[in-house]
């Protein structure tokens, strides 16, 4: 659905989160699937933006990129110790209530 969030999963996202989202019908792509593990964070934001995807990350460097004014389609950030079950529930909630337009140049903290 074009009116639903599509996610770009950063490198260290637990596999269980990605699989859980996919089982629930969410459009998700991972850095690993794209072969971009060694890419700079700014490149990830650019790639996600070109594909209309919101980046989910546990890397605070993305918050600095946002603060520097780099355009993006949205960033969802969770601290490293956030349980996978909480991440999955929170991403599903965002997917169900926010539109892609809501997320442009916006950060959501889980």
Descriptors:
alpha/beta; Rossmann fold; 110 residues; globular
Structure overview:
With 110 residues, the chain is an alpha/beta fold. The chain has a single domain, classed as Rossmann fold (3-Layer(aba) Sandwich), CATH 3.40.50. Helix content is 44%, strand content 15%. The protein contains 6 helices and 5 strands, in the order βαβααβαβααβ. It has helices at residues 15-23, 31-34, 41-50, 61-67, 84-97, 100-103; strands at 7-9, 28-30, 54-57, 75-77, 107-109. It has a 5-stranded parallel β-sheet, with helices on both faces. Strand 1 (7-9), helix 1 and strand 2 form a beta-alpha-beta unit. The longest helix has 14 residues, at 84-97. It is globular. The chain starts with 6 loop residues before the first strand and ends with a strand.
**Mean pLDDT, as a whole number?**
94
Strand residue percentage = 5-15%
So what's the CATH class?
A: Alpha Beta
Uncertain stretches:
none
Q: How many individual helices? A: 6
For this structure, the CATH topology is Rossmann fold
* Adjacency order of strands in the biggest sheet: 2-1-3-4-5
User: Any idea what the radius of gyration is?
Assistant: 12 Å
Q: Which percent range fits the helix content?
A: 40-55%
Question: What is the oligomer described by this structure?
Answer: single chain
What count of structural domains?
1
Profile the largest sheet. 5 strands, parallel
Give the SSE order as H and E letters.
EHEHHEHEHHE
Task: Give the overall shape.
Answer: globular
Global structural class: alpha/beta
Reported CATH architecture? 3-Layer(aba) Sandwich
* First-last Cα distance: 24 Å
Q: How many strand units?
A: 5
